[in-house]
Amino acid sequence: MITSKILAIFIGPSGMALAGNFKNFMTSIESIATLGFQNGIVKYIVEKRDQEAEFKKIMSTVFISLLSVSLLLSLVLFAFSSYWTRTVLDDTTQYAMVFKILALVLPWYATTAFLIVVLNGLGKYRSVIYVNIVGNILGLLFAVAAVYYFKTFGALLSIIIPPSLLFFVVFYYLNKDIRFFDTISRHSFDVQVLKNLSSYSLMALVSSVFGSWVFLAIRKNIITGLGVEQAGYWEAMTRISNYYLLFISTMLTVYFFPKLAFSTSKKATKNVFWSYYNGVLPLFVVGLTVLFFLRFFLIRLFFTKAFFPVADLFFWQLLGDVFKAASLILGYQFFAKKLTLAFITTEIFSLTLMYTFCHFFMTAFGIQGIVMAHALTYFIYWIVLVIYFRKSLFG
Questions:
Q1: How far apart are CA 192 and CA 61, in angstroms?
Q2: Computed over its alpha carbons, how large is the radius of gyration of the chain?
Q3: What global pTM score does this model have?
Q4: Most CB contacts within 10 A, which of 132, 262, 288, 349?
Q5: pLDDT, position 92
């Protein structure tokens, strides 16, 4: 929240739009660099952490694969930095250095993401919390200094540098529990591990890569059709949305996902679904209703008065997020039961709907059309998931 305030003061809506573009790009790059293995790594480390040989196979195979892919990506990013600048930031020279710096730090960035997932899989939740606290403090301090001195260029750097510096913190906590370099061996590399992780990889890559590029394309359409400031208003609304959706996503990841994964009958799954719909979702709706009436206060708190046009986006965004929250619990069932094909099909369907609705609604309603498209897309997506999982929901 403090970082958003700093961005609002020093770079305004236009700079925030570019930061949003770069953040979407980074989401896809991180997913490719880590091969979308995060959920699968947690699952298999939980299962194999007491079997030394199998644990070494998982650690060695994943680490060597991620390091190889991230080094290859670094070469591509560095060699074609001007192309990525034009594609992502609509600028030919000013921000090319950002992509060269990203190329240099990407292996550290990917390794950090891998080590955090390993800590999580080992059940070292206290260490994960400490790492996140240190990461947030590092990110905040770096962002304040970088944005103050380098404006938009500094904002872009603040997205990539702090997670890379966090490597040393994560390595310290992980090395207290396992001798990391003792678990990595070229001879323990096993292709079967990659095959076991492939379904998780496909689901994560489709969601992260395809999703990030769809939202990047939408923001670029807004910049072209309505102007960069309008794109900045949408980015500000998205940031506020991400803040309160953390409440839902954290609860789903920590509490409901494990319950779905261990549910062995339709009745047990039905109980998990309805405990969410009866307990969590009504509270979430009440919270969003309060936020709607406090929207001008929130804009002043998180941003500046220059962002007051964001208030016009709240209704449709909040409505869409209610449907999004309603669909997320059903979406987690895809991961819990490894329903790879169904997940990919529904994900591509929803992202295609989002892009199509945004294109037509923006022409008719301006920037409000984007949040209207968001609401309609998630309403349809929720209906589709309800139909797909109807036996578990109502059987």
A1: 9
A2: 21
A3: 0.85
A4: 288
A5: 59
